[in-house]
Amino acid sequence: MTATTARVLAGPPAAEALLASVAARAARLPTPPTLVMVRLGDDPASVSYVRGKDRKAREVGLRSTVHALPAETSQAELLALIAELNADESVNGILVQLPLPPHVNEEAVLHAIDPRKDVDGFHPVNVGELWAGRPTLTPCTPAGIMFLLSHYGLPVARQRAVIVGRSHIVGRPMAALLLNADATVTVAHSRTVDLAAVTREADLLVAAVGRPHLITPDMVKPGATVIDVGINRVLGPDRRAHLTGDVHPDVAGVAGALTPVPGGVGPMTIAQLLANTVTAAERQPTR
Ligand code: NDP
């Protein structure tokens, strides 16, 4: 058995700290920041994510509304709702829960959201601002990771950072945020040659892949900070479904610090969504 040495970077205390600042900022505004979430169909994961975001939003003093639409809602109907929410001055943040059913073009929907209300940070205007070094509304998971790192006093500037995964939701915006924070950044992906040689260079390793236990101890520099974004459902020895990350548990014997799964990055994502909603409200004209 491997001795566990890595410091555990628990998500909940960091998320609570972020939520406390969200509540304080919300209370300073003339009216509570308002988040509107839209979901199509009854995908159990989407239902549960939206419910969790709605509950947390209310807990910290935000207003939250959920539009639960049938799976067969047409793209035109969804775009009409977004246009209505864009025009409604009482709405500060709009989130369309992904994935959308196949008959709806995700890109067309995300591009239709007013960038000032785009609390997921997926609109090309916000993506461009992030890469230009002027982040405003930034994708929630990587922005939450930046908060987690600062909460635990872990250095970013001058560090060699390696991100495994280049999705628009996690890998790419993570790279931009780390670059903006003066890390030296490498992004690896499924076509990377000799992944282990690349990851072993990292002082800060972010795994956002969706492959259980892809990152093994031999791929990690001793003492590195390892952020495990992966959420994978696997069958345990008891034949029941368990959540596990992209990082093998034995990495705890090599890394200096490691986020657990569950209870690491996950809670940061919701907290950051609410932080983005307050940021959107602060930047919109007072009503
Ligand atoms: P995507 O499937 O969109 O992206 C996965 C990335 O991993 C791709 O860039 C892919 O490369 C790369 N990849 C796949 N296989 C390998 C491999 N063998 N070696 C190296 N790179 C590989 O996933 P997401 O970014 O959306 O999510 C990643 C994980 O994070 C998932 O488990 C997801 O559930 C979880 N997640 C967790 C969140 C949280 O709040 N904790 C939030 C969002 C996601 P290529 O581009 O070449 O195909």
Question: Can you offer a commentary on this structure?
Answer:
The structure is a single chain. The chain is an alpha/beta fold. It has 2 domains: 88 residues, Rossmann fold (3-Layer(aba) Sandwich), CATH 3.40.50; 129 residues, Rossmann fold, CATH 3.40.50.720. 37% of the residues lie in helices and 17% in strands. The protein is built from 9 helices and 11 strands. Strands 1-11-8-7-5-6 form a 6-stranded parallel β-sheet. A 3-stranded parallel β-sheet has the order 3-2-4, with helices on both faces. A two-stranded antiparallel ribbon has the order 9-10. Helix 1 runs parallel beside helix 9, helix 6 crosses helix 7 and helix 6 packs across helix 9. The longest helix has 19 residues. The N and C termini lie far apart (60 Å). The model has no long low-confidence stretch (mean pLDDT 96). NADPH dihydro-nicotinamide-adenine-dinucleotide phosphate binds next to helix 9.
